[in-house]
Amino acid sequence: MSYLLVREDREHLLEPGDTLESDLGILEVPEDVEPGDTLETHIGERFVVREPRGPDLFDHLERTGAPMMPRDIGLVLGQLGLAAGDRVLDAGTGTGILAAYLGRLGVEVTTYERDADFAEVARDNMATAGVADRVEVRTGDVTDDLDALSDFDGLTLDTGDAATVVSRAPDLLAPGAPLAVYSPFVESSRDCVEAARDAGLVDVETVETIQRGMDFDERGSRPSTRGVGHTGYLTFARTPLL
C-alpha cells in the first residue's frame, strides 16, 4: 500500500521504506507510517501523510495508455450499483484505474489484459492501490475463456471487441446483473447495443459523457469555453431476471 505525502505545493506517492529526494531535502518514509503522520525532510520541510483516493490513483499510477477518466468511472459505478463482495468480470485492464476503484469498494475483480507488459504494470498498480488481494489481473484475451466464466455480478469492458463479450453476457452474468462498456468511438457503441439487444438484454442505453467547467470572474459566470469535455461513450445494459 502506498501513501501520499502532501504539502501545499506538491504531493508524492510513496511506499513505506521509500526515500524521497527533492529540492526540499531528503525524506525517509518509515516502515510504520500511517495516514495523518507528519514527516520532515532533513532540512525541516514538512509533509502530511494520507491514504490516496481514487482521483489520486488516476494522477499517480503508472500509465500504459489513456485510462478511463474519473467522471466516466463515476457513471459506471453509479449505474452498476456494485458493492463489497460482488464479483466483476473486466476486460481491457490497461493502467487498471477502473479495477482499482472497484477493488477499493470491496468488489472482487477478475480483469483481462492482452498485453503482457501492460498486465504486469497493472499488477504493480493494484499493489500500489492496496487492492491486489481483490483484483486478479490475468494476461490474455477474455474471449478465449468465455466458456469457463460465469455467475458474475457485473461486467465492465474497454476493448475493441466488446460486442463479442456482450453477446455472451447471459452466460457470464447472474440474472439481473448489469454491464457497462466504454467506447471511444460511437460505431463500437452501436455494435454493443445491437449485440445486447440480440442477446435479450434489457435496459439498454448509451450515453455520451461531456463535462464542462465553470468560469467565475468579476464580469459574471458562464461555462468554460475551453473545449467541450468529451471523453467517450458508455453503454449500459442488464441481464433479464427471468
Automatic annotation (TrEMBL):
GO biological process, one term: tRNA processing
PANTHER family recorded: TRNA (ADENINE(58)-N(1))-METHYLTRANSFERASE (PTHR12133), TRNA (ADENINE(58)-N(1))-METHYLTRANSFERASE, MITOCHONDRIAL (PTHR12133:SF1)
Pfam families: GCD14
Superkingdom classification of source: Archaea
Name of the protein in its database record: Methyltransferase domain-containing protein
Coiled coil: none
CDD domains reported for this sequence: AdoMet_MTases
Domain tRNA (adenine(58)-N(1))-methyltransferase catalytic subunit TRM61 C-terminal stretches: 70-215
Species classification: Archaea, Methanobacteriati, Methanobacteriota, Stenosarchaea group, Halobacteria
GO molecular function terms noted in the UniProt entry: methyltransferase activity
Keywords: Methyltransferase, S-adenosyl-L-methionine, Transferase, tRNA processing
InterPro entries per UniProt: SAM-dependent_MTases_sf, TRM61_C, tRNA_MeTrfase_Gcd14
Gene3D superfamilies in alphabetical order: Vaccinia Virus protein VP39
